[in-house]
Fold this protein.
Amino acid sequence: MLLLFFVISVLLSASAFLFRNRAVTRILTLAFSVVLILFTVYGWSNLNETELAYFTFDSTGVLLLTVLAILSLPAIYHGFIYTADDSTKRYNIYHAGLIALMTFMAGAYLANTMTVLWIFVEATTLAVAVLIYHDRTEMALEAAWKYVFICSTGIALAYLGILFLGFIYGRGDAPNLSFESFSMVISNASPLYLKISFIFVLVGFSTKMGLFPMHTVTIDAHSVAPPPVSALISTTLMNVGFLAIFRVYKLFASTSVLPFMNHVLILAGLLSLLTAAGYMLKAKHLKRMLAYSSLENMGLVAIAIGAGATGYYAALLLIILHSFAKSSLFYQMGQLSRILHTFKLDACGRYMKLYPAGAMVLLTGMICILAIPPSGLFISELMIFRGLVGNGQWFVLIVSIILLCFVIYAMSIRIMHITFSDPRDEEGSKLPGAVSPVETVSQFFLLAIVIMLCFYQPPFLADMINQSFAILPR
Amino acid sequence: MINYLIVLFAITLMYFSSADRLITYVKLIAIQGLLLCGIAIFELKEVNTPNLLFIVAETLLFKTLILPWLLARILHRSGVTKVHRLAMPGFYLLIFSIFGLLISVILAKILINPYINTIYLAIALFTLVTGLLLIVTHKLIISHLIGFLIIENAVFMFSLAVGSEMPMLINIGILLDIFVGVLILGFFGLRLKPHTNELTLLKD
């Protein structure tokens, strides 16, 4: 089935690129979404099964694959709208790139071998570069260049981390560096090698997860990429980086380096929060503000993992909920730019009057992403803080809460300005565009999931999350 | 013989710090490709012949010929010749480089492992440090590209250290080579203005 999925995806992507017909491209892209959803259903019904030797439908992978499958439909729908005025060639390249990106992400989620995971992560860089460069402007070129360059450096560093894992094995012991074979020899490994390997992997894959210190790459990419692509970079692609780091963390968790990894993650998390809070306070570009909000959320995820115990559950719940809430906000940004013709904060205003449905998405999305009840993110953040209190990590707790206050202030004051105030500069006096309120349906749907999970988390979801960290020490 | 080649490789790294013409950088990249080819031939005795041929062809074709050719083409188009207009003076870079070598040797001693040649590890670490130094201390985009190629050579060196029984690791390193060679140099290298530091459109 996995082979079939990859073959169909490659064929759909290649066909979308080659057929110079928009209607055909549209059908092919929608067909891919259906295939992805069916593949996810197959994953749920074949949990913990291994296919093609290098892929396993484990709980974490399937959970993130489900998030991708759910987000694929709105991503494609908003992609159709965004590219409606493009030439057929660019239209086709965009959708072929989108299919390729989602296929590579699915491969990365399910990879059970370090090297295969690394290959798929590298492949996502290629696909995203194509999508970031979609508008063919100088800024798009610069953002794509920075993304490829920093990601390549990160990928090279992550590869060094993998090689250090290879050194642990010695020669002749490891044909493929699978996580399972690693787990058998990991207890004999030198802690120094494990620590070095973890640092390299963390820094390297941070380019994808968007954690400090490699966060700059995703921030620039967000401000230029088409909004539906920003939504994917900020959610499902960040989840790829998270998964790579989490898999190595899980692998090393049974050794003596666990406290070291926790300290490093908490430090990276706090620095991410600090950077996000600082830059959000002076953000003038709306998509950059949302990108810094992603940095803040990934920082919280790192702190949650570092806190351990209830933090593991909170981290995975946060990753899932953040994906839905942030996607809807990015899709809304696409509509906002069609109405106000800008992403600049000072040129935005009176959004409630111009487009009430969009303004409601912005306000609800703000409540959700800032973890204000009834957002499901509130539950996950509460669990993180409980974990920190339980560990007696008061300093981390207090610093996190103070920084989160800055984030809440920075974002809410900006969203309120867009929604209710008049624009500050003249650019905002352009004739507003028109967008149908129906386009916000998918955004309300995603936000509804985030709110629903505050009150009720279905047992199957809780079980899957619990399975994801079952082997970790409590 | 391998040790001689590795020491020669280290000398090329030191030479990066003192060179002040970009074409010298390009030649050094080509020489490093050739040296890595030699090291691969002598080191990978246990790898099967087709795999060895593939690795040798990759180092000769990509690292020694195609990548330097692409770099030379970028230099020719942009007309830039000197390194230090927008970089740290070579003298200071040389001092940093010597410190880098010292730290790499100490680290390699700490990380001593029965499966790895210490000289390999020391020079691979030094290569990584040199690449990062070049990226941090230079502002020209072309210097960043060369810094990245040096990091990539460090990765290749590391993978050779463990590669006798794990050819898959080397092959993946090669994948990175092709990725970088074709995309970064071939596409972005020719579209950006590599002789400038004009990457300031995106900022907060």
